[in-house]
Specification:
The chain has about 270 residues and is α+β, with helices and mostly antiparallel strands. It folds into two domains: about 130 residues, Alpha-Beta Barrel (N-terminal domain of MutM-like DNA repair proteins), CATH 3.20.190; about 120 residues, Helicase, Ruva Protein, domain 3. About 25% of the residues lie in helices and about 20% in strands. It has six helices and eleven strands. The longest helix has 20 residues. It is elongated and about 60 Å long. The protein starts with a helix and ends in a 6-residue tail after the last strand. The chain binds zinc ion. Zinc ion (ZN) binds next to loops.
Amino acid sequence: MPELPEVETVRRTLENLVLGKTINEVTVRWPKIVKHPDDLQEFNALLSGQTIHSIGRRGKFLKIILDDVVLVSHLRMEGRYVYVEGEEEPDKHTHVIFRFTDGSELWYRDVRKFGTMHVYKIGEEEANKPLVQLGPEPLDETFNPDELYEKLQRTSRKIKPALLDQAVLVGLGNIYVDEALFRVGLHPETVAHKLSKQQVMKLHKAIVETLQEAVDQGGSTIRSYVNSQGDMGMFQQKLAVYARKGEPCVNCGKEIERIVVGGRGTHICPNCQK
Ligand code: ZN
């Protein structure tokens, strides 16, 4: 699943491709992807005739901002956008087609069909699902270590599942939680409320640095993830533990292990993260 850096890469790519384009019509071929409004005709009516002014991001959600409405899109496992200028025919994995007035098209492809789309009037999206439950944005000044400490103090969960909870903070998934915990030498099964203030300060810094470095590198490309133009993110080569089972730790040389924490495959150095 794309995490904050990968979604940010998609955001930037889309911004280069579709800014200023006006939607002529929308075809939805797999209705379950559209979560709001309930009625597909209303979904089409809200978007048709609207021009794309900017592409934003909230956590792992894209926010496509048009004249009067905003399309909130989550790629989930396999979703991706494909920009098409020629006479190509959409394949069976293309579930939503946005046709622009200039003849170009934006396709939403999703092999697993887990992605979601919500359309709201501008200004209503933050007060409604799915954005309303979200915690602070880690690359924004609203993300502060004191608040993170308070939130972690209130949970008896392990630190990894706590950090994956998008109400605690947004944007982290399996890759960047493993990377951030490795950077501060914390075992992912550490109980969240047992962390000291100082440990949380370090963890906060590691989360920000890990995500910022990954954003700067265009994200990671794990399995089938590619950005909208099919480029590979370059952060993959910088990963210290994720997907490196059996390889030597960059700090101490001991073999990276894969364990399961909260049902998620988790990569640690057993020596650096005790
Ligand atoms: Zn190590």
